[in-house]
Each structure stands twice: as structure tokens, then as C-alpha cells.
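Case study 2.
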Amino acid sequence: MSTEPPVEAASALLRRLIAEHPYERISLDDLLHGVGHRAFGLLLLLLALPNSIPLPSPPGLSTIFGLPMAIFAAQLMLGQKEPWLPAFLRKKTLPRDEILKFLDRAQPYLTKVEQRLKPRASSFVGPTAERVAGLIILGLAIVLSMPIIFGNFLPAFAVLLMALAILARDGAMMVAGWVVSVIAVAVVGLVIYVGIEAVKLALFSLFS
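Prediction:
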């Protein structure tokens, strides 16, 4: 029988790394040094959380996630083994205690997803599949950077699913993330279309 210890859940690992940080503020640089071989998945998970969980997020957390997410996604798409960020983003800090409070509130939601994770369908979490995920996440990061009303939740939730899939080597969850991505793009496209039509109608009414 195998005596290998169980793999620590992604949310638990992320919380532990932040809780053990000795200073009041924590930067992405600190996290990059702490997450090891699970870096891409954990960092994408952290960056997706503010908009994928129906909870108030820590001040500043939701405002800096778009650009780092796009950068990590591009590196994942290119097959890079370790994440890299420019210095000005690596040094950006957030209040440690506020992140911990947010993670505590988000834990019940994350647990529901993590309970469904298990290693399976390995062809959907291999190197090629991770590159595909990187391309999809890059597109979603661009969508998330747009000020679209009701346009953040589904793209962020899709990224969260793919990040967890990478961490747990769960190909089925990766496919679920891809499916949610398609739905997210369709919904965002519909929101944009309705918004444009509403503006046209308003202008027509104003000048008619």
C-alpha cells in the first residue's frame, strides 16, 4: 500500500503561506518564492478569487489582478516552467490580514469545488493542455480588465476552475473550466451587445 502523504489542498496551502509570512504586508514576490512547483496554479487561483467568489474582497486585491494574470497566462501558454513578473508588480504589496480574512470567508465556496477534485483524465492537464489553458486564461484576463457590468464573475470562475485543475492534475475539471470559458465569453458578448444597443436607442431617442 502507498504511504504517500495526502497532497495539501490548494486553498489550505495558499492560506498557510500567507499566514506564515512574518510581515504585515505581502507581495507577489513573497508568494513567488513560497509556492514552489505549484506556482502557476496557486497564483492564478489567488488572482481569480476576488471576482469568482460572491464576497467583498480586500482593498486593492481586485485592482491589481488583471495584468499579473495576463502575464502568468502568457508564460503558461509558452510553456515556461516558473512564473516571472516585472519588478514593479513583484513589489506590489497587500495587507496580509485582510487577505487571510477574505480566504477564511471564501473557504466554504472553495471547499465545495476542491471536494470534487482528483487526478484523472491526465491528457487534459498535460503540457499541451496547460498551454491551451494559458491561451484561454490570457483571453479571459483581457475580458476581466474591461469595465463590464456583470462581466467579471464567469470569466474569473473559469480561471479558478482551470487553476485548481492544474494544481490537482484533474483533467475533468480542466474541461469544465474550458466549458465555463465559452459560456463566459458568450455572456460577456451578450452584455456588450445589449449595452451597445441600449446606447444606440438612447441616442436615437435623444436626437429624434
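Residues 1-5 have pLDDT under 50 and may be disordered.
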